Amino acid sequence: MSAITAQLPGLQVVVPLLGAIIAAFMRRGTLAWAWATLITAFTPIIAFALLFQVWSNGPISYHMGGWPPPIGIEYRVDLLNAFVLVLVSLVSTIMMPYARRSVAHEIDGDKQAWFYAMYLLCLAGLLGIAITGDAFNAFVFLEISSLSTYVMIAMGRDRRALVASYQYLILGTIGATFYVIGVGLLYLVTGSLNFADIAARLGEASAAFPRPVLAGLAFLFVGISLKLALFPLHLWLPNAYAYAPSFATAFLAATATKVAVYLFLRIAFSIYGVALDLKALPVSTVLYPLSIAAMFIASILAVYEQNLKRMLAYSSVAQIGYITLGIALMNQAGLTGGIVHLFNHALIKGALFLALGAVMYRAGTVKLDDLGGIGRTMPLTFAAFVLAGMSLMGVPGTAGFISKYYLIVGALDAGKWPVAFLIVASSLIALLYIGRAVEVAYFRPVSKAVAHAKDPPLMMLVPMLALTFASVYFGIDTELSAGVASRIAELLIGGLK
Amino acid sequence: MALVFDIGIVSLLIAIGAWMIMARDTLVAVIIFVVYGLLMSIAWVRLSAVDVALTEAAIGSGITGMLLLSAAARLRQTEGAGARPSFPVCVAAGSLCALISAGLAGVVLLPADVAPTLAPLAVANLADTGLENPVAGVLFAYRALDTLLEKVVLLLALLGVWSLGSDRAWGGAPALGAYVPPNDILVFFAQVLPPIGIVFAAYMTWTGASHPGGAFQGGTVLAVMWLLVMMAGVARAPPISSTKVRWLLVAGPALFLAVGFLGFVIAAGFLAYPVDYAKALIVLIEIALALSIGVTLALLAAGPPERTLQP
Question: Is the same domain home to A248 and A321?
């Protein structure tokens, strides 16, 4: 048993990777779906095992191929990435039963197996970014997750999916290039690719070569910001989310940007923060205005959006603004707020996009004007939409409230009461765009497109309701979300120089 | 003398780079790009990075050049149709790029101290791998995972290209319409060159364990040979739904993964090799990889499926 336990970090990535290659050989969509579900279900088991191990015994170090760092690749699991691994794998597992009908509805029979192969590769890539302790290995996983994402988006029904995928490909490639240039600069001055090793050598290197160290930070910052869709580098996101197959949108919205945020935290707090004075570096200065701009501008764009998938995509850009705002605050409560919102937003957006996927499945459209009265024909689906939407706004008693609460406390602790005010003000805009959807869904006469729509089959309904329940439940019981996030914030801030 | 040569190479690189940007015609720009890649590989040789030079010549200018050529040929009909960005936009974009490049160059030009690197450590551990080429040691032992994943990336790129084909042609074969139509000279070369090319590719792959070379370079030569055969019409491009093709595509990565899993059982963990068999296993992986890379690259250059399957 202990032999397997020791190999868990390796298995976390290798299992979905192998699963993807086998899935590519399958011809039948249903078989590929069953296989992908089975493989996905393995990943949270491993992730939880890792989390418990880290919780009781501290960080785990795994040497890939038996080669110790810095020459070999190290997988290093601490509380922060164990938390991200659990989040990504668990949300994916909850979503998988939903995939079968939705994917079968939107993707041609003979392409479905490919879609699942892409999905598993993307999952492997995201888990890989989260688990690795090596800067270049993270880049390779970033490429795997990005390329598989482009293919998934391009499989969308709409012809515009191709253009959306192409735009994302161009911007994503620029982002990856910036990231790898940043890694190159760090290697230049420290001679290492291992996160911990770089952190140990960076202080000395910075004294000798201050400019490459700063330039490296700038390149890494821009590169990762493109992947996490930080305003104004979010331009790829609305179209990509709008035209991708519904299941892909829900999966990516819940996981991909979160993993990019993780990578940002790792580089800012575990590398630069350990070696240099993070508060003296221009991280917060840049993050504040961009986060606040995201919270407002993207939310306002969401209000004017007709296509509900695009509306939620803009909302995602705004929500990422809250997460980065929490990082910019750099104090205990603020960082807790950012990290807990990373968790809560994954659940909330997952639930919302699954609800829209169900609308797409039954009504064939997500244009707001065509959806009059859908709240009456698809009652459970829209109840889920409203509940998750309330959590998105931050109504007390929901998970979203917990995020906002910590962020506001963090802003007040930092002595920035205008920021606290802006957090509340921007949440009101979410009320506008969710409210607009509610108005159409419940108070307009039933339109033609939705007259014969009804709630989706159980396999789609249960994952949607489960995520909705979670996005409310974690507003009441905050042990696993805010409790762990607060502990992580403590560790990250405690590690700062 | 060496200094004069280096300065010459660098100024040529800059001049050719500028020319490539200035070129109005896409096809011309692509041809200049190929020249640029070849010059670049000479620059790598001057920096004593022979492995990088080989890869640059084979991938950077060879296969990438082919891909770009076929893309340029496909764009022919639409060229000039789209609106060109206005002059101020071009100037602004150009100046910003120049600024970032100049800034990066300024940052990289460190004081004369030798920058720290992992190279001595890579050489020191080489005995445990049974290999003699430290580059192969990095690729197949220390950072084997990255190499395995890069092969998956290559496969993904191919799947991405395939998914661009129309739904009607899904599972069909590439038509290679973007290249020159078959003619006698092409057919002659397609019949004479492949045997030589295959021997050369085998040597490149085999020698990678101790000298510059390896699966990637060998695979590229294989790819070019197969492309030549397909372009000349000596053998038709296979349909992408062919099981044989799929096996060839995954043979390399699959064997790599299998050996990786073997590591769980007989060595320290995933991708760990038992010391006595390290070299044998690595060479085996390289041979399978060369085959897969050859098929992947050739099919990448052949493009998305355009002919529907004959019932």
Answer: no
Distance separating alpha carbons of residues A342 and A402, to the nearest angstrom: 12
ipTM for the whole predicted complex goes beyond 0.85: yes
| Residues near A81 by beta carbon (within 8 Å), at least 6 away in sequence | A130, A131, A262, A266
Instruction: Give the angle subtended at the CA of A329 by the CAs of A323 and A330, to the nearest 5°.
Output: 100
Question: How many domains does one find in chain B?
Answer: 3
The DSSP call for residue B78 is G
Residues constituting chain A: 497
What pLDDT, in 10s, does the model give residues B181-235? Answer: 667 777 888 888 888 888 888 888 888 878 877 888 888 888 888 888 888 877 7
Query: A250 near A95, Cβ under 8 Å?
Result: yes
pLDDT tens across B250-276, in order?
888 888 888 888 888 877 778 888 877
Q: pTM here?
A: 0.92
Say whether both A14 and A112 belong to one domain: yes
A380-397 pLDDT tens trace: 999 999 999 999 998 888
Kindly state whether residues B153 and B240 are assigned to the same domain. Answer: yes
Smallest CA–CA distance, residue A448 to chain B, in Å, is 30
Quote the CA–CA distance of B1 and A263 in Å, as a whole number.
47
Q: What percent of chain A has pLDDT over 70?
A: 99
- Is B40 in the same domain as B179? no
Top pLDDT among A1 and B238 is at: B238
pLDDT for A16 beyond 90: yes
- Structural domain including B33 reads 1-80
Apex A29 CA angle, A24 and A35, nearest 5: 65
The reply to whether A212 falls in a domain is: no
- Secondary structure string (H, E, C) spanning B92-112: HHHHHHHHHHHHHHHHHCCCC
First to last CA, chain A: 39
Say if CB B156 and CB A148 are below 8 A apart: yes
- Co-location of A248 and A358 in the same domain: no
| Euclidean distance between CA atoms A474 and A122, whole angstroms | 27
Residues pairing with B307 in the sheet:
B173
**Domain membership of residue A245 as a residue range:** 1-169+231-267
Positive or negative torsion for Cα A170, A171, A174, A179? negative
Among A118, A129, A145, A147, the strongest candidate for a mutation testing the B interface, having the largest count of B CBs within 10 A, is A147
- Measure the CA–CA gap between A345 and A332, rounded to whole angstroms: 20
Any domain includes A459: yes
Helix-helix angle A246-265:A135-154, to 10 degrees: 160
How close B163 gets to chain A, by Cα (Å)? 7
pLDDT at A4 over 80: no
- Of the listed ranges B23-27, B29-33, B112-116, the one predicted with least confidence: B112-116
A35 touches chain B (CB under 8 A): no
Chosen domain end from A223, A239, A267: A267
Measuring CA to CA, which residue among A254, A263, A264, A317 is closest to residue A471? Answer: A254
A40-98: per-residue pLDDT in tens?
A: 999 999 999 999 999 888 899 888 888 888 888 999 999 999 999 999 999 999 999 99
Residue of A nearest to B109 (CA): A212
Label residue A229 left, alpha or beta by phi (over 0 means left) and psi (-120 to 50 means alpha).
left
What tokens were used for A454? 């009804």
What are the residue ranges of helices labelled H in A155-245? 160-190, 195-208, 210-228, 237-243
Q: Give the chain A residue nearest B110 (alpha carbons).
A: A209
CA distance A146 to chain B (A): 10
| Interchain contact, B163 vs A143, CB within 8 Å | no
- Higher pLDDT, residue B269 or A260: A260
Same domain? For A237 and A349 the reply is no
> By CA distance, what is A150's nearest residue in B?
B160
Is residue A197 assigned to a domain? Answer: no
Overall domain count for chain A: 2
